[in-house]
Amino acid sequence: MELKGQLLIENGRVRAALEPLRAAVAQAPDEPQIRTLLGRALVATEDPALNDEAIRELELAAHQDPDSPFTWHQLGMAYHNRGDEGMASLASAERAALAGDFPSLVGNAQRASEVLDKGSPAWLRAQDLLVLAESHRADYERAQRRRLQ
Question: How buried is 107 (Cβ within 10 angstroms: 0-12 exposed, 13-18 middle, 19+ buried)?
């Protein structure tokens, strides 16, 4: 089922891929890569009616495999499509942290901190990401200086 869904996506038949991917997730609920593929397909439909399902699947995938930059990227897109810029920025900051993209990490974590409800779990995570960014600032600046030499 997963392979069929993947092939349909690659051939531009995103909507046709949804049912095989949903079936694949039902058969293997603990496989975050399959959930991410389903979430990607749901986002790619650009159908607002499917956006909440995309977010649910991608949140589960991110919980199952928090080290997947692609999952965080797709989740950020889904939140953006829903108009939730705070959560979109937080997901983008998570992706940037995993990818070692310091400027994007700082910018997105700051944006999330400004928009999310202060004290909420998501806001606290944005604060954690800012602390992480600050702890790696010297390494990033050193690498930038080396690139410029």
Answer: middle
